[in-house]
Amino acid sequence: MDPSAPDRQDLGTPDPASLAQLVDHRDVVLGWGLLAPDADIPLRVVHWGAAPPLDGWFERRLAAALAARAELGLATDPGTTAYREVNSEGDGLPGLVVDRYGDDRVVQLGTPRSPPAARRSWSSCVRARRAACS
């Protein structure tokens, strides 16, 4: 974070296990996001509005992204061996990109911090390679 930037206020060390509030110059909460102060995109918004996202937001969005790909038949089409399972902001999962190559997946995290529940959800899905993850 650039300490000379007039539109930013440092409120201390962020908690990597929590979502950060996005506030305007009047201290009105605009949204909630994943904070990575040293990244090119320091805050990736996961929810707009004053109230924080409901518990389980990550799991619901991950399930929706995987269901959308399943609806396209990508996992069952023998002619399709590679596709993007999760498309970051496009799937409401800022900073997370998951590409599938056959039975293998490549996970890219665009933010070093994410709530522990989100890390556990994706990690268990990949490790288990359950039908729900296909």
Q: Largest beta sheet: what is the strand line-up? A: 1-2-3
Give the CA-CA distance, first to last residue.
39 Å
The tally of beta strands, per DSSP, is 6
- Low-confidence stretches at least 5 residues in length (pLDDT < 50)? 129-134
* Helix/strand order, N-terminal first: EEEHEEEH
**Largest sheet descriptor:** 3 strands, antiparallel
Number of helices: 2
Overall shape: it is: elongated
Helix fraction?
A: 10-25%
DSSP strand content: 25-35%
Counting helices, strands and paired strands, the structural category is: alpha+beta
Kindly report the average pLDDT value: 79
Oligomer: single chain
Structure notes:
This protein is of the alpha+beta class. 21% of the residues lie in helices and 26% in strands. A 3-stranded antiparallel β-sheet has the order 1-2-3, with no helix packed on it. The chain starts with 19 loop residues before the first strand and ends in a 6-residue tail after the last helix. Mean pLDDT is 79; it is low at 129-134.
Main features:
21% helix, 134 residues, three-stranded antiparallel sheet, disordered C terminus, 26% strand, elongated, 2 helices, alpha+beta
In short:
By secondary structure, the protein is an alpha+beta fold. Helix content is 21%, strand content 26%. Strands 1-2-3 form a 3-stranded antiparallel sheet, with no helix packed on it. Strands 4-5-6 form a 3-stranded antiparallel sheet.
Topology summary:
Layout lengths: L19 E4 L5 E7 L7 E6 L8 H15 L10 E6 L8 E6 L2 E6 L6 H13 L6
Antiparallel strand pairs: 1-2, 2-3, 4-5, 5-6
